[in-house]
Design brief:
The protein is of the alpha/beta class and 415 residues long. The protein has helices at 2-23, 25-30, 44-51, 65-80, 124-140, 145-157, 189-196, 230-242, 261-270, 290-308, 324-329, 343-346, 349-357, 373-388, 396-403, and strands spanning 88-92, 95-99, 105-108, 166-170, 173-178, 183-188, 219-225, 248-251, 274-277, 334-335, 339-340, 364-369, 392-393, 411-412. Strand 4 (166-170) and strand 5 form a beta hairpin. Helix 5 runs antiparallel to helix 6 and helix 13 (349-357) runs parallel beside helix 14 (373-388). Bound molecules: zinc ion. Zinc ion (ZN) is lined by residues 225-226, 278, 282, 318.
């Protein structure tokens, strides 16, 4: 009698264990798939390497040898039934990824808790990225203008509503399923990891707005020298952002204060704008020794690199003055221009507009200065004028890449 009762109890234990395990983490997976997987509580981290790529895996409460036996039996039986248990479990930053090779991947933290991301983790910076990527995807997919405008209206004019979004990890991306839009976007984890407070092992990178350039449409590179002068540069940057355009700013080193202009420049770079060196103190480089000329070019470049890790790729010599000696010592191509707005001379919005409209053609580089309010006023009309004509406002580097211009070229002035 006693014996029989004990045996009965013993027989119930594995069943209970199976049920418990199924209700747990593996339960989610169980409903998605015919194959049964068991994820228990034993240190996945400790055993990650050991268990990697095994064809069957059962985890069980640590130190419970009875449970271990049961688990092994279950595993063996299922394997004999040709059940597929292939999976990959590998370290990802502070997490382990459980990959069953069926698209869905799970990330477990050190306590074997499933990584979950919801709208509470999405701060304003990530919201901005989501809206940037929405616009980018809309453009890239070649959807009609109405589609793009709808996204712009929803994402910029109103605030992006992300309360109904679903978040998951998909490769190197945070997948955002915007159920209200019936649209998915993918944000690179290298940009969002630190914002949502997780570490999946990707090196954090400075966010840069995604840009799509249609190779079949004309480009225009607006360039602004002698700044930043925050009151004016802010206005120009706002107009650019409003029309989804970008520009290249050649800054003067002597204007760069670590707590003012440098963080300001960082925000412009995040909008997709480019910064190049306009030297430290606006001297004519052809009058300087090689060492002095190189130093003049490099000080602003180093300021931005030290400030927020920015790597410049271009410079503009003051007065456009360069010679073969300057070309040889500079690590960057000298970027000149083929349209001069003469804003420094007229300081009059109408005169500036007339000067630009009468000269600009496809793939030109236009010279402005972001230190005059009259320039900011003129640009407020010039930018929509060219956007309406189908021009894409690009950085000089973007133009060079689309046109296949080599960065080793000593200088470039458009087209
Ligand atoms: Zn200048």
């Amino acid at each position: 009698m006693h014996k029989k009762k004990r045996r009965l109890r013993k027989g119930l234990l594995p069943v209970l264990l199976i049920l418990l395990l199924l209700i747990g983490g593996a339960g989610i997976y169980f409903f998605l798939n015919f194959n049964i997987h068991f994820i228990g509580v034993k240190s996945i981290h400790e055993n990650a390497e050991k268990f990697n790529n095994k064809n069957c895996l059962v985890f069980y409460p640590a130190g419970n040898s009875y449970a271990e036996d049961v688990a092994k039996t279950i595993c063996m039986n299922n394997t004999q039934d040709n059940a597929i248990y292939d999976y990959v479990l590998k370290p990802y930053g502070d997490y382990y990824m459980v990959d069953y090779g069926l698209g869905e991947k799970y990330f477990l933290d050190k306590d074997n808790k499933l990584l979950s991301i919801d709208s509470a983790d999405i701060n304003d910076n990530v919201k901005k990225m989501i809206s940037d990527y929405l616009r980018y995807e809309a453009k890239k997919s070649g959807n009609d203008e109405a589609f793009t405008v709808a996204f712009m209206e929803k994402t910029y004019v109103n605030n992006l509503d992300i309360t109904n979004a679903r978040y998951s990890i998909d490769g190197e991306y945070l997948k955002v399923e915007l159920t209200d839009f019936d649209y998915d976007i993918h944000l690179p984890l290298k940009y969002v990891q630190s914002e949502i407070g997780i570490n999946l092992g990707y090196e954090n990178e400075l966010y840069k707005k995604p840009r799509y350039i249609d190779p079949d449409r004309p480009m225009l590179a607006l360039t602004f020298d002698d700044g930043p002068y925050i009151p004016v540069t802010t206005k120009i940057a706002a107009t650019l952002a409003y029309y989804d355009g970008v520009a290249t700013f050649f800054c003067l080193g002597e204007r760069l204060r670590p707590d003012e202009e440098i963080p300001f420049i960082k925000t412009l770079v995040e909008q997709g704008n480019e910064y190049g060196s306009h030297t430290q103190s606006h001297l004519n480089l052809t009058n300087l020794s090689s060492e002095a000329a190189l130093e003049e070019i490099m000080i602003p470049a180093n300021d931005l690199k030290n400030g927020f890790g920015y790597e410049m790729r271009l410079y503009r010599p003051p007065y456009g003055a360069h010679d073969s000696n300057v070309d040889n010592i500079s690590p960057y191509p000298a970027i000149l221009w083929n349209v001069d707005s003469e804003d420094w001379k007229s300081r009059n919005p109408d005169a500036i507009k007339e000067q630009v409209y009468s000269q600009v053609d496809e793939n030109d580089i236009v010279l402005f200065h972001d230190i005059y309010d009259s320039t900011a006023q003129a640009v407020k009309d010039i930018i929509p004028y060219y956007v309406d004509k189908g021009y894409q406002l690009v950085t000089v580097s973007e133009m060079m890449e689309v046109l296949g211009i080599d960065y080793n070229k000593p200088y470039f002035s458009g087209r």
